[in-house]
Design a protein that fits this description.
The protein is mostly helical and 274 residues long. The chain is built from nine helices and two strands. The protein has one domain (2-250). 66% of the residues lie in helices and 4% in strands. Helix 1 packs across helix 5 (106-135) and helix 6 runs antiparallel to helix 7. The model is unreliable at 255-274 (pLDDT under 50).
Length: 274
């Protein structure tokens, strides 16, 4: 275990560095999220709306623009999280294959990618929840943070899967954007006045229910907050399976490692622990 720990930490460091050097992703995280939240506050009506939540079990009353801010925040987080993990996974594909040829431990490589996706989701959740806390009368801050983190985590797993699966950068980006827009639109209780069949099966359902309950009620944290974990686990497991199947012929355990230069980071990886 000890000899594999440096391989995990170095891959995690390079993966996170790849995220940080992605200027478009950083711009989306820093500017798109507050702009999308602000758009809901400015464009939506301030009228009082009454809507039902499965997680609350009773009607909830709130201003329409406040509801829009929460749902827009979730939509922005899941889009940015999915986009960031997809871009890093897709761009690092060739480098990962070269590392496997050099004898890099496959398990540590995969674990580092999943861990990086979770850390990115956590950072986005903390940033977004802070913005909501500053602009809304949030009733329960902790459960709201958990719900936003779940949304980012679920789409982080989806981004990993798409980055391992699709052949083109444009199609992966299109899938992330379209899925997140469709999901967030169907989960908005102000827009959707009817219960759409299959809505509960979508990735955002659990986070949306939990976030709205936490933002506008004093009810205890519902079990819906755990639903995104199933999406994250399933998508991450499929991503790891696809990665394993596509790189079986590249993996040569025991091969001497060679210094390589990352496409997404400017630092050289050290020799593979062995």
């Amino acid at each position: 275990m000890n000899r594999h720990w440096p391989a995990f930490t170095e891959m995690l460091r390079c993966t996170l560095l790849g995220h940080l050097t992605n200027r478009l992703a950083m711009l989306l995280a820093g500017a798109f999220i507050p702009l999308w939240i602000g758009a809901a506050h400015l464009c939506a009506s301030s009228r009082i709306v009454r809507f039902s939540l499965d997680a609350a079990g009773e009607p909830v009353v709130a201003q329409a623009n406040h509801v829009g801010q929460v749902t827009n925040a979730l939509g922005a987080v899941m889009m940015v999280s999915g986009f960031m993990t997809f871009m890093e996974t897709f761009k690092a594909g060739e480098m990962d294959r070269r590392l496997l040829l050099a004898g890099y431990p496959r398990g540590q490589m995969l674990l580092a990618k999943v861990t990086a996706a979770a850390l990115i989701a956590g950072a986005l959740a903390l940033y977004t929840t802070t913005l909501l806390y500053l602009t809304l009368p949030v009733q329960q801050l902790g459960p709201l943070l958990t719900a936003v983190f779940g949304a980012g985590l679920a789409y982080g797993g989806i981004g990993l899967l798409l980055g391992s699966l699709v052949r083109g950068e444009l199609e992966g980006f299109f899938l992330v954007v379209m899925l997140s827009l469709l999901d967030s639109g169907l989960q908005n209780p102000v827009i959707n006045v009817v219960d759409v069949d299959g809505r509960a099966a979508l990735p955002l359902y659990g986070s949306n229910q939990s976030a709205l309950t936490a933002a506008f009620t004093h009810l205890g944290p519902p079990g819906h907050a755990l639903l995104p974990l199933s999406w994250w686990a399933a998508a991450s497991a499929l991503a790891l399976l696809v990665f394993h199947l596509r790189t079986r012929s590249y993996y040569r355990p025991g091969t001497a490692a060679i210094p390589v230069q990352s496409d997404t980071a400017t630092q050289s990886l050290p020799p593979v622990p062995g």
